[in-house]
Model the fold of this input.
Amino acid sequence: MSAQKASAPVRLVRLAVAAILIVLAAALVLHLLRERGGPRPEAVKPLPEDRIVDLKEKVRHEEYSEGRLVAEIRGDTFFRGPDGRNHLQGSVYIKNLGPAGEIVSLLTADEVVYVPDSLRYAVSGRVRVDAGSVVLEGGSFDYDKSGGLFSTKSGGTFSARAISGEAKEITYAEDADEVRLGGGFKVGFFPPGQTGTINLLAGDSLVYRRRERRGHVDGWAEYRGGRFQGQSESLSFIATEDEDALALADFDGRTQIILLGDLGSGRESGDIHADRVEASFGRDSGFIYTVEAEGAVSLVLRRLTDPEILIRASAATIGFGPDGVPGDWSASGGFRAELDGTTNESRVLEGESIAFDASTRVLRASGLPGRPAVADSRRARVEAPSIAAGPAAGDLEASGGVKCLLKPGEEGRASGFFSATKPVFVSAASLVFRSAMQSFSFVGEAQAWQDKEFLLAGELDFFEATGEMKGRGGVAAGMGQAAAGKTAGRRIEVGGEEMVYSAAGRVLSFRKKSYLQMPGARLAAATIDAVLNREGSGIDGLTALTSVVVSKGRYEGRGGRAVYEAGTDRITLTGRPVLVDKEGGSSRGDKLTFDLSDGKIRIENEGQGRSTTVIKS
Done:
């Protein structure tokens, strides 16, 4: 018999059990798939991009640390944006407080953006940061609260006490109180009570440590202050206590300094080129006080009352008056100074060192052993261990042993004892030249010579314009005497304690213990006046007065007056002359004539008993 069909209730139970088994089986499969890394459920879709959350209005927030208020934060709106960052917008105000409740920094802006739980903030929109006595302003700044750094690369300004500046890049470190500017900057210094930029600092980049008041400019640097303008490749400086100017500036690398003249004069008082220049400034006036330059120094100084001076040296120092005008200065390490004088006058000083005294207006130059100082001009060249120029333009003094070359030329030195067409060499212990009188004064064993002519004296003066001369302290003039009659050319010498040369009559006058020395004869007298030959070959004649003595061989003639004539080569002695023989004899007459060409002596008597005696000397 076939099986009977199950009843309806039984069938329902079976179906329920089967469904349960199917569900359990599916759950088991799904578990196994998960354990084996099989496909996972689909991720939750993100919120729409314009979705903002945690929106708050009129934010007022305070932060505390260990029970102490450390920050106050305000803003119109706060929210977390689609970028996942927090935004504080509208009239943003953030005040950070120190341990004693003092304001460390105060920030205002249109917006502050930051990552939650981060200490780095992006601040934008009319940003102003008051950090101590420093104020930063700009379109946007980044703030690293952990490092206490405010920075921007989109341009801004900063100010501190009497300083105000602008730059493409600005960084301020709160703890170090350090300002960094980059991308090109300008900083102005504004002393209290004065309007306008008094001093300006500019360059590529700047690091300024305010606590030390020290700064450094790199890339390119320029500073303008008072009557001073300077620029170089880099600049280190120290600011004044009030930070209203620079107290000290150290320019380094291809330095150029311009010194401005009196205000309103429109004339520069000088400029400097050097490898390095250190400048200090007056504490009260702000004007330049001192300048020290070194390395390939080129210095130009101009004064209203003095000629322009160009100095090249290894090092130079300049002092300035309270009005900022150059005063005392010096140069060393080997120098060359070019002095502009009168028209067609070029004067040069060279040596080891040189110094200018503004009170006396005198330049003093020094040389080294074996390398004397040199003064060179159109009219003369002077070498000496020490040379002083001034106070008048062209004035010169030299000491310590002088060598001088008086130059020939169409202008300047007139012909006198020495020809103006040839150089004259002079040596002496010292020299004084006065431009107003155009006079050279040589003192101390003075020697002057030109070809065969020479002058020796204790002191010797040359008057350039007239050709006149004066000598003191024992003077001797040596020259070549032209041939006369049977007498060949020879050397003669005329001297005395004092000498005067008059160019008008070409007269060489000697006083006190005067003498004439020539081969075979000598004349001595109180005074001798010698007339020089116009062809420059000795003398045409001379006159001797008072206690005249003529010596030739063993004879000696004495009288009151003597005349020498080069044409006849004779010395005529008058004034109750007497001829003395060194062997004891003597003869008297009205006139004694010494014929130097033939060696004869004639004794002549005038009157009724006129007679002539001839003696062969």
About this structure: The radius of gyration is 52 Å. Residues 487 and 597 are 5 Å apart (CA to CA). Residues 8-35 form the longest helix (28 residues). The chain has one helix and 43 strands.
